[in-house]
C-alpha cells in the first residue's frame, strides 16, 4: 500500500504537480508545509494525530530531543498500525472461513 501523502515542501527545488494539495500544519510546536494528493482536511487530521502522539510520548520522556522523540512517535504509530492490520487480517480470515462453512 503506497501513501499518497507525498512530502514536506522545500524538497530541494523539485517540481510539485498542480494537482497536489499544499498546506501548513503544526506538529509539536513547529510548522511544516506538506504536499499530497489527499484532501486538506485529511492531511490536517494526520498531522493532528502525529502531534497528539508526539505530545503523549513526550510527556513520559521530557529529556529527549525532538529527533529522538519523533523516532519514538513513529515507532508508536507503526506499532498501532501493525496491531490494527493484524486484527483486520484475523477478522478477514474469520469472515472467509465463515463463508466457506455455508
UniProtKB/TrEMBL annotation:
One of its GO terms (biological process) is septin ring assembly. It is found in: Cytoplasm. SUPFAM superfamilies: Cell division protein ZapA-like. One of its GO terms (cellular component) is cell division site. Keywords: Cell cycle, Cell division, Coiled coil, Cytoplasm, Septation. It comes from the Bacteria. Its main location: cytoplasm. Residues 74-101 form a coiled coil. The keyword Oxidoreductase does not apply. It holds the Pfam family ZapA. The keyword Amino-acid biosynthesis does not apply. NCBIfam families: PRK14126.1. Homodimer. Interacts with FtsZ. Activator of cell division through the inhibition of FtsZ GTPase activity, therefore promoting FtsZ assembly into bundles of protofilaments necessary for the formation of the division Z ring. It is recruited early at mid-cell but it is not essential for cell division. This is Cell division protein ZapA. It comes from Novibacillus thermophilus.
